[in-house]
Amino acid sequence: MLLPTRRTVGTRLTAVALALRLYQMFALPLLLLPGDPWSGWTLLPLALLTTPFWSLIHEPESVAGPLLERLAQPKVLRQFRIDAAAIAVLHGLAFAAYGAHWWMLALALGGRALIVSLSDNAYHYGTDLDQPLVALNLRLPPALELFALGFNLHGLHHRRPGLRWYELRPAFDAEGGECDAGWFRAVGRQLRGPIALPDRSPSHE
Prior knowledge:
The chain is an all-alpha fold. It has 10 helices and 2 strands, in the order H-H-H-H-H-H-E-H-H-H-E-H. The protein has a two-stranded parallel ribbon with strand order 1-2.
């Protein structure tokens, strides 16, 4: 019996992620909620799965600088507008499907947004704004690193975006990489607030 390859596992994870998104947006409100409002609690574990889902779809080119450069291209801008419109329509239909339970979907999306914001910003908090592709590598226990699909090795992911999630740890170890900080500490320190920019006036250069 042949064991599935890591590439196959990645494909299956993507399929599972898409299936869970369809469950959240349509299957739950249309099939389960009408008969059992308590089924809305299944949105909680889906929100907690935000990090591995984000890892599957995240690309370093989504960082501000490269993204804006790509959007300046007519073909890319047209595709971006189509994608944005499709997202708006799908979520509009999802809120309509939830009906009186629309607030459940709103809370789930808000929770996902909070997790993405806190998690993703932790890799960039305190880094040089002039180098948007620079990111931190943050330490996690092996089990949580696997759960996050190696997303904690964010600096390596930015430097070598062609690596798949299961190639990040071997490549990191092969380079003799060292983490910049612990993941939980990095997430917490950003709550200190904005960091003042250094004075770059001519008299200080």
